[in-house]
Amino acid sequence: MIDLYYWTTPNGHKISIFLEEAEQAYRIHPINIGKGDQFQPFFLQISPNNRIPAIVDHKPADGGEPISVFESGAILQYLAEKTGKFLSNNIRERLETMQWLFWQVGGLGPMLGQNHHFTQYAPEQIPYAINRYLKETERLYGVLDKQLSNREYITGKYSIADMAAYPWIVPYERQQINLNDFSNVKRWFDSIQNRPAVKRAYAKAEAIN
């Protein structure tokens, strides 16, 4: 059994998607970041950076004490390695997947997050910041579109790289992106959106928040 400490954000969705896809038993513990639950002492013991998601695996592969993992990319890698799913053992395929996973956690997520902040949540409109992050959002969509130009999924086979990137594309309208301008991303997005496991993951999100 895996305890998932979660809120209904793109980073949170990454892990619920994986757990649904891999058919793993898990319990969701909502961490309402709007109410400051992420600063509760018990949560900081699991996620010292006070960010969701985080997990506690009560049945780790080594049979030892429960393992806690924070940071969404690390969680995806941990779960993929434990289950043997969505991360190839082939060194070249694995490397490509890990590169695109790190592209998401180091680029796509942070830059689109800044887009969300400055266009919707900042207490004042700062044209320079808005323009900067809108342009970077467009650039990153272009990078993803090119990567998907000759393959069904980001690295060919459906993997943790897709699970990491997809939730950040879901709010494309809020990012002022016309998905029709990125035809390969749109095809990929529609394919993942219609996966039964992804539908189950987002249905749980709606029930929580």
UniProtKB/TrEMBL annotation:
Domain GST N-terminal positions: 1-87
Domain GST C-terminal: 90-209
Entries under PROSITE patterns matching the protein: GST_CTER (PS50405), GST_NTER (PS50404)
CDD domains the UniProt entry points to: GST_C_YfcG_like, GST_N_Ure2p_like
Pfam families: GST_C, GST_N
Family: Belongs to the GST superfamily.
Name this polypeptide is given: Thiol:disulfide oxidoreductase
